[in-house]
Amino acid sequence: MSSRSFNAVIQELHPELLVPIALFYLILRGLDTIEDDMTIPIEKKDPLLRDFHTITEKEGWSFNGSGPDERDREVLVQFHYVTEEYRKIKPVYREIINDIAQQMGSGMADYCNRAIEGKGVETVKEYDEYCYYVAGLVGNGLTRLFVESKLANPALNERLELQTSMGLFLQKTNIIRDIKEDWDDKRRFWPSEIWSKHVDNFEDLFRPENKEAALNCSSEMVLNSLNHADECLFYLAGLKEQSVFNFAAIPQSMAIATLALVFRNPNIFKKNVKITKGSACQIMLESTQNLAKVCEVFRRFVRQIHKKNTPKDPNFLKISIACGKVEQFIESIFPSQDPKALQRSAEAAKPVEDPQVIKEREEAKWDMIYMLIAVMGTLFLLSCIMIGIAYFLGARFDVAAKQLKEGNLKPPSGDAARSIADKYDRGEL
After folding, report:
1. Of 48, 79, 222, 331, which sits with the fewest C-beta atoms within 10 Å of its C-beta?
2. From the CB of residue 394, how many other CB atoms can be counted at a distance below 10 Å?
3. How far apart are CA 217 and CA 198, in angstroms?
4. In 3-state terms, what secondary structure has residue 126?
């Protein structure tokens, strides 16, 4: 396998699709290798790309004309193994793969000729068209394979925009990430309709004095890619079989993580940046469970983009809206039930009272407290005065205290009263 990450994912696919999708990938990888190889002259490259779909039927075909430094030249050198296995799969799968390879090869050849003429990718429409040929068609082909094998909702075949977004989201993210590598190889995929808003010449993006302009340009490219995110999640909801879901979900989760990494990151103009292996492993684990978990991954990285967004960016508002659009879509299929959030919402829904009314209510409360204190103080004072007068007039509080101590709580009878009086009689009265 040309890609180790792809190798790990494809081995977990449903047996019905494992070999067809592996061959589909290798055939398209062969096409991509020819297109990327700048050592192959256009006179040779053009017919190779346009006729590549017929090569898959040729027994023993291989190609040794790639440059010695081409990363995936071995795919073409050993391509006779691909053609041998390709002829063994079901005819219906071969028909789908052949159709996609034909369309992709023709589209690649057109853009290779444009590059030779010095035209490159000028408008956003041409940028979308190029990404469709090299990646959108992959989404289309995979969808047809998923549905044909009865492992996905047939309705996905009718939603071409969802299929296309799956491929465009991946391709556009890679184009943003690989800007330095592509520029070193004398290739340019960022449309001039975007970069010309920020700098006069494309090479100006790599100059340190244009750092802020370059970051604003890259954020507009991220915005263009981010607009496909919600449709990717919509597409994933239509995949029924777990291994097929994993196969489609992992690259999308990697893409949103990469998009968060490259957003307003000046390092993309200095080197090829990638998410760490640890982060990649975590994302893979999270993306092989269910759609809700994948949505959590998307929400997490969309919030990272929103956090790094700055009002200094000309596209600040549009990026904020795009992030909100993704979160809104996730909320629509998986509503959050956070009690704290609900409480905050309820509090926010309460009518705001007039500050004067609140002040008057507070004053009335303290007036009542002061009034109770005054009443209790008056009663205490009166009690003290009455006790003092009684004592002055000869009240025997000591007798009362003694009787209470002895447990005589009831008034004494007549004889008992006279006995008590005689006991305490001093003789002077």
Report:
1. 331
2. 7
3. 6
4. helix
Q: What are phi and psi of 239, to 5 degrees?
A: -95, 125
Residue with tokens 């800007």: 179
Torsion sign, CA atoms 179, 184, 189, 192: positive
> Across the 429 residues of the chain, what is the mean pLDDT of every consecutive 10-residue run?
59 86 90 84 87 84 80 85 89 92 89 75 90 89 90 86 91 93 86 92 92 94 94 90 90 93 93 88 89 92 94 93 92 75 57 68 83 88 84 72 69 58 53
For the record, the structure tokens of 14 come out as 């449903």
Count of all residues that appear for the chain in the document = 429
Secondary structure class of 30 (helix, strand, coil): helix
**pTM, whole model, 2 decimals?**
0.72
Q: With contact defined as beta carbons under 8 Å apart, do 14 and 241 qualify?
A: yes
Q: Which of 175, 221, 177, 183 is nearest to 201 (CA)?
A: 183
Give the residue from 178, 220, 170, 194 showing the smallest Cα distance to 121.
194
d(CA 246, CA 13): 8
Tokens representing 193 are: 């309709």
Residue 162 CB-half CA count within 13 A: 21
For residue 151, the number of C-alpha atoms closer than 13 Å in the C-beta half-sphere is: 20
How many whole angstroms separate alpha carbon 70 and alpha carbon 80? 19
For the chain, the C-alpha Rg in angstroms (whole number) is 41
**Active site (catalytic) residues:** 130, 177, 187, 247
How far apart CA 210 and CA 183 sit, in angstroms, is 17
- Contact, 294 vs 287, CB < 8 A? yes
